[in-house]
Design a protein that fits this description.
Blueprint lengths: L13 H5 L4 E4 L2 E4 L2 E3 L2 H13 L4 H11 E2 L23 E10 L2 E8 L5 E6 L4 H15 L4 E4 L8 H9 L3 E4 L9 H16 L5 H14 L9 H6 L14 H19 L10 E5 L7 E11 L2 E6 L4 E5 L3 E3 L16 E3 L6 E3 L2 H5 L29 H6 L6
Parallel strand pairs: 3-4, 5-8, 8-9
Antiparallel strand pairs: 1-2, 2-3, 5-6, 6-7, 10-11, 10-14, 11-12, 12-13, 15-16
């Protein structure tokens, strides 16, 4: 077959098809410009050769661009560092390193290999005791990891650090000396931290560090496509950028709070207890208010009331009112037997044995108007408005 087909269907050949006019063959090797195209079986061997003399990730990539190429070469992070497997759980493998002295300070940098969550702390010194104290505080928030990867620095190889790892059941891995690419994740995090702090102006170093970490943690990572915070916590933390979006729920809640505040300013507190004498709103036919005694409370504002006719109803406190006796005292407690009620059902008249045995009163003189039952809330002994006038809405005439 000579030349290229009109359409390339397989995805693996499309990167080559885009460069078909720039490809050439020299002594059996396919070249893209002056760079040798390395097939899949030889890519790992080429990367090992590049890592042997690699002083840093960026320089190794620059060296690779000068000699070789294959599709997605620069996006394969596993080639540019130690061939660590991506952990399936968050906070399973952590990479540690020190950054500095930088801006007259030294930073402890920690990266979670799963979520890419970044921790950076200013250190007073980098002794093993201070470092383990700082790690103890971090682990108190996020929990213990399975593996910690560090270099062979004096802090990480000390007996104190080794004892700290063993007591917490953490596997400590030290990569080979003079090969920083093995801890490429922490190395890249150190470079990112320094670049960000160097570009930020104003404010203290602590403020700049906090702002950088917050922005880094809520920004989608290029490898996972998800922010480190979402990968680690399963949620996206709220930021000042969220304030740009209108929040209907917040507006509704504020409106409800305002309505409740206005109502509370004008509302009258009512507290009822079992045994209190009350009037109950009647939603059936008959009198609008019925006398009763509170039996027990079923909720914050709900009560069960025993009516004096033997029925039992449940009412909201808005449908209850205090019932007063002849002395004007509310919430008369005790038994409610042998009680007579006016036709309006608004006043109770206690009956005692003395009253039962008393001599009946003489009938009223001719022409004397009969006493009308008292209205709700009217103490005994006071004349009540005539029922006819009350029902018709007419003014009362004494």
């Amino acid at each position: 077959m000579q030349g290229w087909p009109e359409a390339v269907g397989e995805e693996r050949f499309k990167p080559y098809a885009k460069r078909k006019l720039e490809l050439s063959v020299l002594d059996g090797c396919i070249l893209w410009g002056s760079r040798v195209i390395v097939p899949l079986p030889g890519q790992a061997q080429v990367m090992e050769a590049l890592q042997d003399a690699h002083p840093g990730v960026s320089r190794m990539k620059s060296l690779a661009r000068s000699f070789v190429w294959w599709p997605g070469m620069l996006r394969q992070d596993c080639f540019w560092s130690h061939p660590w497997q991506w952990p399936r759980r968050a906070w399973s493998r952590l990479h540690l390193d020190f950054a500095g002295p930088f801006m007259v300070q030294t930073f402890l940098v920690l990266v979670d290999a799963h979520s890419k969550w970044l921790e950076a702390h200013i250190m007073s010194n980098i002794t093993a005791a201070v470092t383990t104290d700082k790690l103890r505080g971090i682990f108190a928030i996020h929990g213990l990891p399975d593996t910690v990867v560090t270099d062979n620095g004096a802090t990480f190889t000390s007996a104190i650090f080794k004892e700290f790892m063993e007591k917490n059941g953490i596997r400590h891995v030290c990569f080979a000396p003079y090969h920083p690419a093995s801890n490429g994740l922490a190395e890249r995090a150190v470079g990112t931290l320094k670049d960000a702090l160097r570009k930020m102006t104003g404010h203290s170093l602590e403020t700049k560090l906090s702002r950088f970490l917050f922005q880094y943690r809520i920004t989608p990572h290029t490898t996972t496509g998800v922010s480190p915070a979402e990968m680690l916590f399963g949620r996206r933390p709220k930021s000042h950028l969220d304030l740009l979006h209108p929040d209907i729920e917040e507006r509704v809640v504020r409106g409800q709070d305002t309505q409740k505040l206005r109502r509370d300013q004008h509302a009258k507190d009512r507290v009822f207890q079992p045994g209190d004498h009350v009037y109950v709103k009647n939603f059936a036919t008959g009198l609008p208010w019925l006398p009763g005694v509170i039996q027990h409370q079923t909720g914050p504002v709900s009560f069960v009331v025993d009516l004096l006719d033997g029925r039992q109803v449940r009412r909201h406190q808005d449908h209850l009112h205090d019932r007063y006796d002849a002395g004007g005292e509310a919430r008369q407690r005790g038994a409610h037997k042998n009680r007579a009620f006016s036709p309006a059902g608004s006043v109770e008249v206690p009956q005692t044995p003395e009253e039962d045995q008393s001599t009946p009163e003489e009938p009223a003189a001719p022409g004397t108007p009969l006493a009308h039952p008292a209205a709700p809330g009217t103490p005994l002994g006071q004349p009540a408005a005539p029922m006819l006038n009350v029902k018709l809405g007419l003014p009362h005439r004494g």
